Amino acid sequence: MGRPPCCDKVGVKKGPWTPEEDLILVSHIQEHGPGNWRAVPTSTGLMRCNKSCRLRWTNYLRPGIKRGNFTEQEEKLIIHLQALLGNRWAAIASYLPERTDNDIKNYWNTHLKKKLKKLQAGDGSSMSGGLSCDQSVPKGQWERRLQTDIHMAKQALREALSLDKPNCLAELKPSNGSYSFTKLSQPATSSSMTPYASNTENISRLLEGWMKNPPKSRAAQTNSESTQHSINNMVGTDSSSSEESASAANHDLTAAPTMLESLLNVDSSTPEMSETSFFQGESSTISDSHMPLSSLETWLLDEFFGSVKVELIDMPLGDTTELI
DNA sequence: AAGATACACAACCGCTGCTTT
DNA sequence: CAAAGCAGCGGTTGTGTATCT
What we know:
It comes from Phoenix dactylifera. The protein is mainly alpha-helical. The chain has helices spanning about 20-30, 40-45, 50-60, 70-85, 90-95, 100-125, 140-160, 200-210, 220-235, 240-250, 255-265, 275-280, 285-290, 295-310, and strands at about 170-175, 180-185. The chain is built from 14 helices and 2 strands. A two-stranded antiparallel ribbon has the order 1-2. The longest helix is centred in the middle third of the chain and has 23 residues, at about 100-125. It binds a DNA duplex through helix 3, helix 6 and helix 9.
């Protein structure tokens, strides 16, 4: 026999989440962690099915989610990954830790699809950066080759980023006329911080957040935005400010190592704790969903370090080859 | 100003693989 | 081992907002 049913469909609420529901859900997750979704509706009293609770958390309430304004680099990465992986949005999202699969999927369907169509109609070339998957190679052989490649690429990336310590990011800094990578301390959104404060404290902070963010015209969005804002306050992140900085510094060189670091964390055997795996119960799909992609990593190296070289090319900074 | 249409995105639906009993 | 549930994923829909006519 199987398990008892998780929730009956009778009396289950549907539609947009209210701030109150968000609050209840977040409070529950603060206490118990994001897992055992089956128990969430019953223990919280939420008239939602566990699936809805899980989706609301993973797609909206989870800390560290960046919303809106995809950067050019993110766009390129998505296009490239989509070309490689197809519509495996969860796998694609695992390369963009701050974006949800739903977000990426929506962005693809509403923006990138059209953009690509337009471009392809224009000159026949794709935006994927000229990546070529050797389809003639038999699948098994191709995968084995990729396994070897990914190992080598990871090693090279580790060396390039000097990631000998966990939870360290690399930053590109000018030094004596040339650029070099130096380690950064972990940003506030990372797993080094305490994700949840005490329950009552957070509830009051949430409410405080709503008081400071009066409703705008778009009710549903306002609710969600203010909740997210409050939750980010609560957990020590601020998506709006990080969003601002992200869009303002489209060519922010620190973004590349961050993304590349997430690549390095793909290996589940690494001691680093990724954002995803940090949350107990939130099963990390990274190792499962990642196809070994040597070409991807090569492309990332080209894309980010290559662009660094391009950006620096006009500066009298000396040899940039040490970046790689 | 009002209706029509397009757009953006949150949420739901249904399927699949894995886990539990 | 089989049956049933769980969790995750991708596709699709619904709804609010913006823009156009």
